[in-house]
Amino acid sequence: MSGGADAVPELKAPPALYAGAVAAGTAKALAPAEKIFTLGIVSGAHIAFGAFLALAVGGACPEIAAANPGLQKIIFGAFGLPFGLIMTLVTGAELFTGNTALVTAARMEGKITTKDLIKSWVSSYLGNFVGSLLLAYLAFNGGTLGNGPAAAAIATAKCSLPFKVAFIRGILCNWLVCMAVLMASGCSSMIGKMTAVWFPISAFVALGLDHSVANMFLIPLGMMRGAEITIADMFIKNLIPVTLGNIVGGAVCVMAPYGKTFGSWFSKKE
Predict the structure, then answer these.
(1) pTM for the model
(2) Distance, CA of 178 to CA of 175 (rounded, Å)
(3) pLDDT one-digit tens code per residue, 125-154
(4) What are the two backbone dihedrals, phi and then psi, of residue 11, each rounded to the nearest 5 degrees?
Protein backbone atom coordinates (compact mmCIF):
# COMPACT_ATOMS: atom_id res chain seq x y z
CA MET A 1 0.00 0.00 0.00
CA SER A 2 1.59 3.26 -1.09
CA GLY A 3 1.29 6.56 0.69
CA GLY A 4 1.47 9.43 -1.74
CA ALA A 5 0.79 13.10 -1.37
CA ASP A 6 -2.96 12.45 -1.36
CA ALA A 7 -2.81 9.89 1.47
CA VAL A 8 -5.19 10.71 4.30
CA PRO A 9 -3.21 11.37 7.51
CA GLU A 10 -3.94 9.16 10.50
CA LEU A 11 -4.43 12.27 12.61
CA LYS A 12 -5.09 15.81 11.45
CA ALA A 13 -2.82 18.63 12.60
CA PRO A 14 -4.41 20.94 15.23
CA PRO A 15 -5.34 23.76 12.79
CA ALA A 16 -7.02 21.27 10.46
CA LEU A 17 -8.69 19.63 13.45
CA TYR A 18 -10.26 22.96 14.40
CA ALA A 19 -11.28 23.71 10.81
CA GLY A 20 -12.96 20.30 10.66
CA ALA A 21 -14.83 21.04 13.88
CA VAL A 22 -16.13 24.31 12.40
CA ALA A 23 -17.24 22.53 9.23
CA ALA A 24 -18.96 19.78 11.21
CA GLY A 25 -20.70 22.30 13.44
CA THR A 26 -21.88 24.26 10.42
CA ALA A 27 -23.36 21.19 8.75
CA LYS A 28 -25.09 20.14 11.97
CA ALA A 29 -26.59 23.55 12.63
CA LEU A 30 -27.89 24.04 9.09
CA ALA A 31 -29.76 20.72 9.11
CA PRO A 32 -33.56 20.85 9.50
CA ALA A 33 -34.81 20.73 13.09
CA GLU A 34 -36.71 17.48 12.51
CA LYS A 35 -33.54 15.78 11.23
CA ILE A 36 -31.55 16.96 14.26
CA PHE A 37 -34.33 15.79 16.57
CA THR A 38 -34.53 12.36 14.94
CA LEU A 39 -30.76 11.84 15.05
CA GLY A 40 -30.88 13.17 18.61
CA ILE A 41 -33.21 10.32 19.58
CA VAL A 42 -30.70 7.90 18.07
CA SER A 43 -27.79 9.43 19.99
CA GLY A 44 -29.75 9.49 23.24
CA ALA A 45 -30.33 5.77 22.80
CA HIS A 46 -26.62 5.21 22.05
CA ILE A 47 -25.50 6.99 25.20
CA ALA A 48 -28.20 5.20 27.20
CA PHE A 49 -26.95 1.84 25.92
CA GLY A 50 -23.52 2.81 27.20
CA ALA A 51 -24.85 3.77 30.62
CA PHE A 52 -26.92 0.57 30.65
CA LEU A 53 -23.77 -1.50 30.09
CA ALA A 54 -21.90 0.44 32.77
CA LEU A 55 -24.64 -0.42 35.26
CA ALA A 56 -24.68 -4.06 34.20
CA VAL A 57 -20.91 -4.45 34.59
CA GLY A 58 -19.39 -1.79 36.85
CA GLY A 59 -22.56 -1.41 38.89
CA ALA A 60 -22.77 -5.13 39.61
CA CYS A 61 -19.50 -5.69 41.50
CA PRO A 62 -20.11 -4.50 45.09
CA GLU A 63 -17.35 -6.73 46.46
CA ILE A 64 -14.77 -5.00 44.26
CA ALA A 65 -16.23 -1.60 45.19
CA ALA A 66 -15.79 -2.41 48.88
CA ALA A 67 -12.30 -3.86 48.59
CA ASN A 68 -10.86 -1.66 45.84
CA PRO A 69 -13.08 1.33 44.99
CA GLY A 70 -10.59 2.70 42.48
CA LEU A 71 -10.70 -0.51 40.46
CA GLN A 72 -14.49 -0.54 40.51
CA LYS A 73 -14.58 3.05 39.21
CA ILE A 74 -12.39 2.27 36.23
CA ILE A 75 -14.45 -0.85 35.46
CA PHE A 76 -17.59 1.31 35.59
CA GLY A 77 -15.96 3.83 33.28
CA ALA A 78 -14.28 1.47 30.83
CA PHE A 79 -17.29 -0.69 30.01
CA GLY A 80 -20.18 1.38 28.77
CA LEU A 81 -20.12 5.06 27.87
CA PRO A 82 -17.15 4.85 25.46
CA PHE A 83 -19.00 2.47 23.15
CA GLY A 84 -22.11 4.66 23.31
CA LEU A 85 -20.19 7.70 22.07
CA ILE A 86 -18.41 5.67 19.39
CA MET A 87 -21.79 4.60 17.97
CA THR A 88 -22.90 8.23 17.83
CA LEU A 89 -19.73 9.57 16.20
CA VAL A 90 -19.42 6.85 13.57
CA THR A 91 -23.07 7.00 12.52
CA GLY A 92 -23.50 10.79 12.49
CA ALA A 93 -26.10 10.98 15.26
CA GLU A 94 -26.73 14.25 17.11
CA LEU A 95 -25.42 14.57 20.67
CA PHE A 96 -26.24 17.79 22.51
CA THR A 97 -23.06 17.80 24.56
CA GLY A 98 -20.83 17.53 21.48
CA ASN A 99 -22.86 20.23 19.76
CA THR A 100 -22.03 22.68 22.54
CA ALA A 101 -18.49 22.66 21.15
CA LEU A 102 -18.90 22.08 17.41
CA VAL A 103 -21.90 24.31 16.77
CA THR A 104 -20.50 27.05 19.01
CA ALA A 105 -17.33 27.07 16.90
CA ALA A 106 -19.40 27.47 13.75
CA ARG A 107 -21.33 30.37 15.31
CA MET A 108 -18.19 32.14 16.52
CA GLU A 109 -16.64 31.85 13.05
CA GLY A 110 -19.74 33.44 11.52
CA LYS A 111 -20.78 30.35 9.57
CA ILE A 112 -24.23 30.16 11.18
CA THR A 113 -26.60 32.43 13.08
CA THR A 114 -27.53 32.40 16.75
CA LYS A 115 -30.93 31.09 15.67
CA ASP A 116 -29.22 28.13 14.01
CA LEU A 117 -27.26 27.42 17.18
CA ILE A 118 -30.37 27.48 19.35
CA LYS A 119 -32.18 25.20 16.88
CA SER A 120 -29.32 22.71 17.02
CA TRP A 121 -28.98 22.71 20.78
CA VAL A 122 -32.72 22.52 21.55
CA SER A 123 -33.51 19.91 18.88
CA SER A 124 -30.61 17.65 19.83
CA TYR A 125 -31.30 18.02 23.56
CA LEU A 126 -34.97 17.12 23.19
CA GLY A 127 -34.14 14.22 20.89
CA ASN A 128 -31.50 12.94 23.32
CA PHE A 129 -34.08 13.08 26.12
CA VAL A 130 -36.62 11.05 24.13
CA GLY A 131 -34.04 8.43 23.18
CA SER A 132 -32.77 8.16 26.74
CA LEU A 133 -36.28 7.77 28.16
CA LEU A 134 -37.08 5.09 25.59
CA LEU A 135 -34.02 3.07 26.60
CA ALA A 136 -34.75 3.58 30.31
CA TYR A 137 -38.23 2.13 29.78
CA LEU A 138 -36.89 -0.80 27.76
CA ALA A 139 -34.04 -1.48 30.20
CA PHE A 140 -36.46 -1.47 33.13
CA ASN A 141 -38.89 -3.84 31.47
CA GLY A 142 -36.13 -6.03 30.06
CA GLY A 143 -35.22 -7.08 33.58
CA THR A 144 -31.55 -7.78 32.85
CA LEU A 145 -30.25 -5.77 35.81
CA GLY A 146 -31.80 -8.16 38.32
CA ASN A 147 -32.33 -6.82 41.82
CA GLY A 148 -29.11 -4.82 42.02
CA PRO A 149 -29.42 -1.48 43.82
CA ALA A 150 -26.94 0.44 41.63
CA ALA A 151 -29.46 2.24 39.38
CA ALA A 152 -31.53 3.63 42.25
CA ALA A 153 -28.45 4.48 44.32
CA ILE A 154 -26.77 6.35 41.46
CA ALA A 155 -29.93 8.31 40.63
CA THR A 156 -30.40 9.26 44.28
CA ALA A 157 -26.79 10.41 44.59
CA LYS A 158 -27.00 12.49 41.42
CA CYS A 159 -30.10 14.29 42.68
CA SER A 160 -28.57 14.98 46.08
CA LEU A 161 -25.80 17.30 44.88
CA PRO A 162 -25.70 21.04 45.63
CA PHE A 163 -26.32 23.14 42.51
CA LYS A 164 -22.71 24.37 42.40
CA VAL A 165 -21.27 20.87 42.66
CA ALA A 166 -23.51 19.52 39.89
CA PHE A 167 -22.63 22.54 37.72
CA ILE A 168 -18.88 22.04 38.17
CA ARG A 169 -19.14 18.30 37.54
CA GLY A 170 -20.99 19.16 34.34
CA ILE A 171 -18.17 21.48 33.25
CA LEU A 172 -15.47 18.91 33.92
CA CYS A 173 -17.43 16.12 32.27
CA ASN A 174 -18.07 17.86 28.98
CA TRP A 175 -14.52 19.17 28.89
CA LEU A 176 -13.47 15.54 28.52
CA VAL A 177 -16.39 14.52 26.30
CA CYS A 178 -15.77 17.31 23.81
CA MET A 179 -12.04 16.59 23.78
CA ALA A 180 -13.00 13.03 22.83
CA VAL A 181 -15.32 14.31 20.08
CA LEU A 182 -12.69 16.72 18.77
CA MET A 183 -9.84 14.20 18.77
CA ALA A 184 -11.96 11.44 17.22
CA SER A 185 -13.05 13.78 14.42
CA GLY A 186 -9.41 14.14 13.41
CA CYS A 187 -8.72 10.41 13.18
CA SER A 188 -9.08 8.65 9.83
CA SER A 189 -9.21 5.06 11.15
CA MET A 190 -11.76 3.31 13.32
CA ILE A 191 -9.10 2.25 15.84
CA GLY A 192 -7.92 5.86 16.04
CA LYS A 193 -11.43 7.09 16.77
CA MET A 194 -11.95 4.38 19.39
CA THR A 195 -8.69 5.25 21.15
CA ALA A 196 -9.49 8.98 21.11
CA VAL A 197 -12.88 8.28 22.69
CA TRP A 198 -11.99 5.54 25.17
CA PHE A 199 -9.51 7.38 27.39
CA PRO A 200 -11.37 10.66 28.11
CA ILE A 201 -14.81 9.02 28.31
CA SER A 202 -13.74 6.24 30.66
CA ALA A 203 -11.94 8.92 32.67
CA PHE A 204 -14.98 11.15 33.15
CA VAL A 205 -17.10 8.21 34.31
CA ALA A 206 -14.41 6.92 36.67
CA LEU A 207 -14.00 10.43 38.08
CA GLY A 208 -17.70 10.61 38.95
CA LEU A 209 -18.53 13.55 36.68
CA ASP A 210 -21.97 14.35 35.25
CA HIS A 211 -23.14 14.10 31.65
CA SER A 212 -26.61 15.50 31.06
CA VAL A 213 -27.57 12.97 28.38
CA ALA A 214 -26.33 9.96 30.34
CA ASN A 215 -28.28 11.29 33.32
CA MET A 216 -31.42 11.44 31.16
CA PHE A 217 -31.21 7.65 31.21
CA LEU A 218 -29.72 6.96 34.65
CA ILE A 219 -32.10 9.09 36.71
CA PRO A 220 -35.40 7.95 35.12
CA LEU A 221 -34.22 4.33 35.29
CA GLY A 222 -33.36 4.81 38.96
CA MET A 223 -36.81 6.28 39.55
CA MET A 224 -38.42 3.26 37.90
CA ARG A 225 -36.34 1.03 40.14
CA GLY A 226 -37.42 2.67 43.36
CA ALA A 227 -35.40 5.83 43.87
CA GLU A 228 -37.47 8.42 45.75
CA ILE A 229 -36.96 11.21 43.24
CA THR A 230 -39.58 13.46 41.69
CA ILE A 231 -39.53 14.81 38.14
CA ALA A 232 -38.87 18.25 39.61
CA ASP A 233 -35.89 16.83 41.52
CA MET A 234 -34.47 15.38 38.32
CA PHE A 235 -34.51 18.74 36.57
CA ILE A 236 -33.82 21.21 39.37
CA LYS A 237 -31.26 19.18 41.31
CA ASN A 238 -29.43 17.64 38.37
CA LEU A 239 -30.31 18.19 34.73
CA ILE A 240 -30.44 22.00 34.83
CA PRO A 241 -27.10 22.59 36.62
CA VAL A 242 -25.39 19.74 34.78
CA THR A 243 -26.63 20.97 31.39
CA LEU A 244 -25.39 24.49 32.11
CA GLY A 245 -22.04 23.06 33.17
CA ASN A 246 -21.88 20.91 30.04
CA ILE A 247 -22.36 24.04 27.92
CA VAL A 248 -19.49 25.81 29.65
CA GLY A 249 -17.27 22.75 29.39
CA GLY A 250 -17.83 22.30 25.66
CA ALA A 251 -18.02 25.90 24.46
CA VAL A 252 -15.55 27.60 26.79
CA CYS A 253 -13.11 25.04 28.15
CA VAL A 254 -12.63 23.06 24.94
CA MET A 255 -13.49 25.17 21.92
CA ALA A 256 -12.67 28.73 22.98
CA PRO A 257 -8.88 28.21 23.33
CA TYR A 258 -8.67 26.54 19.90
CA GLY A 259 -10.95 29.17 18.39
CA LYS A 260 -8.71 31.92 19.72
CA THR A 261 -5.54 30.16 18.53
CA PHE A 262 -6.59 28.67 15.18
CA GLY A 263 -9.73 30.64 14.38
CA SER A 264 -11.05 34.18 14.66
CA TRP A 265 -12.70 34.12 18.11
CA PHE A 266 -12.57 37.46 19.91
CA SER A 267 -10.88 39.11 16.89
CA LYS A 268 -11.92 42.60 15.88
CA LYS A 269 -14.00 42.50 12.69
CA GLU A 270 -12.72 44.78 9.95
Answers:
(1) 0.94
(2) 6
(3) 999 999 999 999 999 999 999 888 999 999
(4) -140, 130
